[in-house]
Amino acid sequence: MQQLTNHIDEEYHLTVLNHREEGYNDERAVQLFLATCSRSVNTQKNYLRAIKRFQDFVSYKSLRAITWQDVEGYKLYLSRGSWDAECKPLAPASVSAFIVPIKSLYKWGSDPNIGLFQHNPTTRVRLPVIPVTSKRHYLTRNEVGRLIKYLKTQGMRNYLIGLSLVLLGLRVSELAAIRWQDFYNDAAESTNWLTVKAGKGSKEREVKVPKQLWQLFLQYLHSMTELNGAEPARDIRLFPITTRQIERIIGKAAKHSGIDKKLTPHWLRHTNATLALLNGASLQQVQETLGHSHINTTQRYLHTVEQLKKAAPDFVEDSLKDFY
Q: Which of 45, 106, 112, 309 has the most CB atoms at less than 10 Å from its CB?
């Protein structure tokens, strides 16, 4: 942490010095932005990639000289497929992923207290409308049962991976980062909890671990102890594999379970939210479990739940069923 603080201080002084004497250095300004605005390494990498791509598009024109037309032109460049040799346009969500870092950079840098940019050329740049497709990205109760049943044949590890994703609503990166020390009991020792430390934006949250799942975790811990001759250290990861390996495990299980969907671990997170709301959980409870910053994100699942419940045609049918 001290090294990061020293690095930020050094970058800040260098940037201010350049700004005063010769006009700030774009690269240093970007590094300072990344260091001060995000703790997540993955976010920093994605933002840096997006900013570099934009700089390449404008032929490394000075960031101070960027105009609204430059950013809008870049947005069209991405959405029309001009960036790709095969002219494949990017989906709205992908376009947004490349534009958001640029908007964030200028919003930060044009703040009067920072003053690296005299104006923000992105204030009138609108992000493309992103269709909500996640409302269809869920498994039915029956499909979840088939998936879990197959994973159980693959061993306790794979079984727990599937159960943890669907019962706890974790992101795949969060699951891969869990360590034994992240579990704890409440004061009454009646409930077990998981502290999710690798959440989006490096935000922590507490997720309740159902009793039966906790017993399976203990069985898994016991099997690891027998295998290694000693109990795993508290700072050891629960599943010491990569997110890509977890994705393969879930994808393979879907095929062997006869699930005709392009299943990913994130689908199980959507399934968690859908089943929770369908069975009486409140929006706030689901929001806290999934770690959504805004309730609007959680509300997207309500549309799916309402569709699964009795709809208007069902009421009409009830009134007319004697006639057909």
A: 106
Q: Where on the phi/psi map is residue 280: left (φ > 0), alpha (ψ -120 to 50), or beta? A: left
Q: Is 301 a catalytic residue?
A: yes
Say whether pLDDT at 132 is over 70: no
Q: What is the mean pLDDT of the chain?
A: 84
Q: Establish whether 266 is a catalytic residue.
A: yes
pTM: predicted TM-score of the whole model, two decimal places: 0.64
The span from the CA of 315 to the CA of 4, in Å, is 61
Asked if residue 207 has pLDDT above 60, the reply is yes
- Check if 126 is active-site: no
137 is catalytic: no
In the DSSP assignment, the letter for residue 237 is B
Q: Among the options 103, 152, 197, 200, which is catalytic?
A: 200
Closest by CA position to 163, among listed 280, 249, 291: 249
**pLDDT at site 85:** 61
CA quadruple 211, 212, 217, 219: dihedral, nearest 10? 120
Per annotation, catalytic residue among 28, 137, 171, 270: 171
Dihedrals phi, psi of 237, to nearest 5 degrees: -70, 140
- pLDDT value at residue 91: 83
In angstroms, the first-to-last Cα distance of the chain is 72
Told to judge if 119 belongs to the known catalytic residues of this protein, a careful annotator would answer no
SS3 120: coil
Which listed residue (252, 269, 300, 303) is catalytic? 269
